[in-house]
Amino acid sequence: VFAANGAYEEGLELLKMLANHTSTAKFISRKLAVRFVNDNPSETLIEKMAETFKQKDGDISAILIRMVSSPEFWSAEAIREKTKSPFELAISAVRGLNADVSQPFQLNNWISRMGQKMYFYQAPTGFPDKGQYWINTGSLLNRMNFGLALAAQRIPGVRLNLLALNKNREPESSESALHQYSELILPERDLEKTIARLIPLLNDPELINKVERAASLNLVQQPKAIIVNEDAQQMSDLTESKGSRVISGTSQGQTQNAGNLMLAQVVGVILGSPEFQRK
Asked: pTM to 2 decimals?
């Protein structure tokens, strides 16, 4: 019971009560675990983090230390179980390929096209932090299309040197390139199943066109909730039309030879693979 005329002090006391409540400790701990561990963290981990929350008066750094020190954080169920958002996918791709980005707006257009127009989510909580929001058949097509476009240098203002990534050693075949570049782009992973799944895509000369057509059709049919809003779609369409004009006007000096085209397709397929979608 609060004393009469408490006013400001009464409000502070109420906030302290809420901050120290067990439900608050569990709520914040669950949010952190969903962000950094997986979409459905174990109750055991949440209890440990909530205990630290109460012991350390809500010190977030202490809670995170407890989280990463717990066996649950390193369990097989937690390793690479988080799905990248379109922003995380694009940034990890340009970093992984050591790309030179001179026109970041072009990259932002692709992020919007994949469903995440930055700062335009209506709820104040921001975009959801669970993979089910980002991954469906249409979004996977758009992600594969992005990977192929990036690797083939069809995104204006983004340049990269795929051979330099492999110390300028040109692979002998597309399958050899898949093995070598998978190890470079997806280090410290068991790639046997991933490579087996991607090999059939390597030698399809129409793969890029097929994915682009399917992704374009999907953009037309996608519900507004996935596209985020109409402006994002219009911006993407404008960018695509501009990008196609740039491609058709590419100078002879920029034309890729057959080996580079093969390598670009291999790297694009890796970027679009389910394994690369994981954090």
From this structure: 0.76
